[in-house]
Amino acid sequence: MSRSFRALLLAGVLCAALPAGAADGFGLGRPATPDEIRAWDIDVGPDFAGLPPGSGTVDRGMEIWESTCAGCHGTFGESNTVFSPLIGGTTAEDMASGRVATLQRPDFPQRTTVMKVATVSTLYDYIRRAMPWNAPKSLSDDDVYAVLAYMLNLAEIVPDDFVLNEATIRDVQAVMPNRNGMTTAHALWPGPGFDTAGAAPDTANTLCMKDCKAGVELASTLPDHALGAHGNLAAQNRIIGPVRGRRTGPDEEPDDDAPSPRILAEQAGCLACHGVDTRIVGPGYREIAERYRGRDSVPALVAKVKDGGDGVWGDIPMPPQPDLNDDQARILVEWILAGAPGT
Amino acid sequence: MTLMRTAKGDSPRAGPPDPAADVTSGRLRRAPENFLTGEQIHLVSKGRREFLRAGFLAAGAATVAAAAVAAPSAVAAGAGDPDILQTTPWGGSLGRPVAANPYGLPSRHERALARRQSPGLTQVAAASVSFTPLQGLFGIITPSGLHFERHHQGWHDIDPARHRFMINGARPELVRTPKVYTLDDLMRLPSVSRMHFIECGANTGMEWGNVAVPTVQYSHGMLSCSEFTGVPLRTLLEDCGADLRAARFVLAEGGDGSSMTRTIPIEPVLSGEVLVAYGQNGEMLRPENGYPLRLVVPGVQGVSWVKWLRRIEVGERPYAAKDEAIHYVDLMPDGQHRQYTSIQECKSVITTPSGGQALLDRGFFSVSGLAWSGRGRITRVDVSFDGGINWTEATLQTPVLSKCLTRFSVPWVWDGRPALLQSRAVDETGYVQPSYGQLRQVRGTRSIYHNNAIQTWQVAENGDVSNVQIL
User: Fold this and answer.
1) DSSP B46-92
2) CATH no. for residue A157?
3) Which residues on chain A are in Cβ contact (under 8 Å) with B215?
4) What ipTM was assigned to the predicted interfaces of this complex?
5) Would you say the pTM of this structure is higher than 0.90?
6) Which residues span the domain enclosing B171?
7) Among chain A residues, CA nearest to B425
8) A141 is in which domain, residue-wise?
């Protein structure tokens, strides 16, 4: 082995991360272009760093809300169908204090988005990147301002004639109902980072081994109805071994190799917009079954599911499903018309 | 064990057994075709041979009747177990060829162990959770197909050749050369493989106020553990010329519809712990777990392990993203929320036996479970059989790794009396897993997140195991 080769080897061992002789790292990857960075760097921070210019009125926001958001979140942002409600539970006093009073009340179980969020930037950032849920990143920056203005108006944080833009959003921040409701004084952040860091863990159990307490009391047990609420536990445990699952319900349907219609519906994303009993974006499946009872509607509905369309149940269109083949669409439609059994 | 068998033979369509059809002598249950009396159970637990001798040679009337049901009539009394005496279907025929399953699958007899949703927890399956069946797993590694799922906007099977990963700075000064990497680039770089647990911050969240779910799958199943392979994020930040002295946080962002973002602490990035990972248990990540790229942030709650990772931004201030300003904030009794709670504190749970199961019989059991800590290694686990009055130290199975699941076990001879099983873990910082009483004292009952309280399983006289809480 030549001396220089050995030197190279040694160098390789000493700085294993960097290839020997490469001045600019590994020579892998390439510089990002300014347009690429602009396309992806869409985060908006609590200090409004990254906030794009633009503006929107409450009125315009109402149009967007009713056409693209209300189907899932309810006309007043109150809907519980898809997710916890967005709006409600805050007061003018909260806006003055910056602490939402209902959060202190154990008898007030509902926690809406506007009750919790301390930073209005969070809402702008999130709606722009992720909403509407089934078509994220489809709103323009102005539309995001507008729909956020409308949500803030629903929450009675801004008046009907409010115009939200990159300047007025700072005024909104100054009256956000829960703006003083967050603390970072806890031990669950690894490292400094926050000036509150360094807190000790908030519990301090000890290693007692013998006669640690006088007696034992059960504070809570599983209510009877909850034992069977997760199906038959016997079918969720092995058929061999030291234990068996308790029988808490009927046997599950025999496993077929073809996926059940319900699983197909889940995989095809139908259940994101249709509940079995509830309307989400589209009608509930039992509603559909009811409407077409006694009619031969399978071919028409198969075509509708594949091609999409609107007008039968309202203005909101169902998107086309190009990935479904005819067989799958027929299985789904027949299952829906049978009342979506097995859900 | 024909006589103990409760399933219907080897029929591929055999449904699950029916162990709860009856309760006899407070211990074993009648299965559809087999039924052992208390005396027979006693004999079985003394050993098979004695049972056979007593059953067949002494020929007690009841015993013969029971045995006749269990053993096919073709077997002469006294001969033994038909699965030994007769040729089995698999012992007397040709099996299937290689590569019949090009990607191997679990036995069809194992279908009971599957990811499952908790009914009513969420309204739509694309923003929901499926839980890992911890009640049936061994060791510490979660099979990739059973890794729990938590999606906010559904999952995709992304074309890896079109996936891009970008690093940039919140200010241009923070990253000298913002860069784009392909999977080709990333997979050429020096990699590491490390075993770590991942736990959702909301694991056990349904149980803050009271017992709510029947089994460990639903109470603790937002927990998995894998070997992850990838490039330390630090290596990539250095490759882009990031100012690691000015950086105080990084933002991680996903490439899916939610483009999920989370603020990541800089310390585990600088220490080399945070990985930009593409591998999981020797293969690529599963699509449900972020294929082809996810962040691995050991010890920190799962929501920070951003899936389908497309971008890292080097920054100086936390970002207050939706899942750290509206969710994953811990509500305290005074109405304040703790924000940026990230570490998964030391926790443990007994998985065998656990809620919703029934013990087969009195006698010997190896009680076993999992312990983990987001602050490092597990140093000790104690187990109690009387609800926390007295404790016994459990054996930790190796390997015992930092921020990884650790399997513990302790021998137990069940005498048929009611018992209350608990486990209590300790980590290398000396932190001892708290009781429900201690945790609620400081955090109340409404937090949803970071419930690491000691779990109790109640064993009844008939062998039924149930979820209960002790303060």
Assistant:
1) H-HHHHHIIIIIS--HHHHHHHHHHS-TTSPTTS--HHHHS--TTTS
2) 1.10.760.10
3) 230, 233, 236
4) 0.84
5) no
6) 151-338
7) A207
8) 55-173
